[in-house]
Specification:
single chain, 3 helices, alpha+beta
Length: 102
C-alpha cells in the first residue's frame, strides 16, 4: 500500500479557482484501478491550504495515476496558481490497524 499525504499553500484567493476543477479530478482518480481513497480538504486553520490524502493499492497503481491525463490537467491548473509552499510525500503502508470505526 502507498499513502500520499501532504498540503499546498496558495496565495490568498488562488485556492478557490482550483476547487471546481478538482471535483472531476477526484472522481476520475477514485475510478482508477488500485485507488482505495483520494481526498482533498481545506485546512480548518488556514483557508489557503489544500490538504490531500491518497491511498493506493501498490506502487504500480500510483505510478499509473501519475501518468493519467486528468493529473496532467490538474498540474496545469497548479502551474497557473500562486503557490507559496507545498509538501507532499509518499509513505509505504504495509502495516495498518483500525483506530476508529463505526
Amino acid at each position: 500500500m502507498q499513502i500520499v499525504e501532504g498540503w499546498i499553500r496558495f496565495a490568498p484567493g488562488d485556492l478557490a479557482p482550483i476547487l471546481a476543477p478538482a471535483k472531476p479530478l477526484l472522481a476520475a482518480t477514485r475510478n482508477e484501478a488500485g485507488c482505495q481513497s483520494c481526498v482533498f480538504s481545506i485546512d480548518v486553520e488556514d483557508p489557503n491550504v489544500l490538504r490531500l490524502t491518497e491511498v493506493w493499492q501498490d506502487e504500480a497503481a500510483l505510478e499509473a495515476h501519475a501518468h493519467a491525463p486528468h493529473v496532467a490537467a490538474f498540474a496545469g491548473l497548479l502551474r497557473n496558481a500562486s503557490i507559496e509552499a507545498m509538501n507532499v510525500k509518499c509513505y509505504s503502508g504495509e502495516f495498518q490497524r483500525t483506530l476508529m470505526q463505526k
